[in-house]
Design a protein that fits this description.
Layout: E1 2-3, E2 8-9, H1 10-22, H2 25-32, H3 36-50, E3 55-58, E4 61-64, H4 66-93, E5 100-104, H5 112-124, E6 128-132, H6 135-144, E7 149-153, E8 161-175, E9 187-188, E10 196-200, H7 205-216, E11 222-227, H8 233-238, E12 244-247, H9 248-252, E13 260-265, E14 269-277, H10 284-298
Parallel strand pairs: 5-6, 5-7, 9-13, 10-11
Antiparallel strand pairs: 1-2, 3-4, 7-14, 8-12, 8-13, 8-14
Helix pairs in contact: 1-2, 1-3, 1-4, 2-3, 5-10
Length: about 325
């Protein structure tokens, strides 16, 4: 099978991937059930087609160059997409139920995604593959074909994605119910003086926003723990080790922990969307899945009765 007009052949890519996975042409030959000379020939043909070397040859060994590892990333994406296409075609031929893949930050596995999965299964009988990642990785999962739908935040590139809004949220501070903040209706920067804070990693924009607000008020943040993914902070806060600033939609996922939340001033506004690859054709199962995501967010209630109501924009009709 030839791919595009480059002359690349599917078998060459499969052999190349197996050589890197197995660590040698001998083990790759065993895994694929072909001879070792055939493996070497496929690799040489691939290099000739690409126009650059992937391996350094020494005696009876070939050692992958940096170019091989960089090329492998794109090969993995291509073969994964083809595997999913083949599985989809097989399912259509056999009238099997389609499996839907949904990419979302892991924190949505607490409350929202279980609701989504329950709806999809009850209406279609289909199973769901849940793929986690940060918002950037969610987009990559969509574009690579690993995921059909995703939960993400704006901004997004409209040349690559289509989406419908599913909710907007302001910042809130979450804390243990016995914390002194439970007596306040709103948390301002000066209220955080002397408090230990569980904060997101400095690489995230929200970290810098929180720091700027505190320092503008003359408060030097006392960071106890830094985390790199929403969901980690709730354990530390639940243990009474500090307070954390998140947003209303994320805080909803922590309902089982019985924390309290209050609006934060100043606050940012975050817009959440359900996304898919631009131009993607929708099956009936994908339509049900998209509606399930929209419904799960529409039926959520604010994380705390005293927290600011989440803005729920009118949902645009998908074209």
């Amino acid at each position: 099978m030839e791919l595009l007009h480059s002359g690349l052949k599917l078998r060459q890519l499969q052999v190349f991937r197996e050589v890197l996975r197995a660590g040698s042409t001998r083990r790759a030959a065993t895994a694929l059930g072909i001879s070792q000379p055939a493996i070497s020939q496929q690799v040489k043909q691939l290099e000739a087609t690409l126009g650059f070397s992937l391996f350094k040859r020494s005696a009876n060994r070939i050692l992958p160059l940096q170019e091989a590892w960089e090329f492998l990333r794109n090969v993995e994406l291509t073969l994964t997409s083809l595997d999913r296409l083949e599985a989809s075609v097989t399912a259509m031929k056999n009238e099997e139920k389609q499996r839907i893949s949904i990419a979302a930050p892991a924190v949505f596995g607490f409350v929202t995604l279980p609701k989504v999965v329950a709806t999809i299964h009850s209406k279609t009988g289909s199973s769901v593959r849940s793929i986690s990642g940060n918002y950037h990785q969610v987009g990559e999962h969509i574009l690579s074909g690993r995921a059909d739908l995703g939960i993400a935040r704006l901004p997004l590139d409209p040349r690559l994605f289509e989406w419908v809004p599913i909710g907007s949220a302001h910042n809130v501070c979450i804390f243990h119910p016995k914390h002194r903040f439970s007596r306040l209706s709103c948390i301002e920067a000066h209220d955080l003086a002397g408090e230990t804070i569980v904060d997101i990693d400095p690489e995230f924009a929200s970290h810098q926003m929180n720091f700027n607000a505190l320092r503008f008020a003359g408060v030097e943040p006392d960071i106890l723990v830094e985390y790199d993914s929403n969901g980690y902070e709730v354990g530390f806060v639940s243990a009474g080790l500090g307070v954390s600033i998140t947003n209303e939609i994320i805080a909803r996922e922590y309902s089982a922990f019985e924390l309290e939340a209050r609006p934060v001033d100043p606050s940012a506004l975050y817009h959440y969307v359900a996304i898919w690859q631009r131009g993607r054709a929708f099956s009936s199962t994908m339509e049900v899945s998209l509606d399930a995501i929209r419904s799960a967010f529409a039926n959520c209630h604010p994380a705390n009765d005293t927290a600011r109501d989440v803005v729920q924009p009118a949902l645009a009709v998908r074209r």
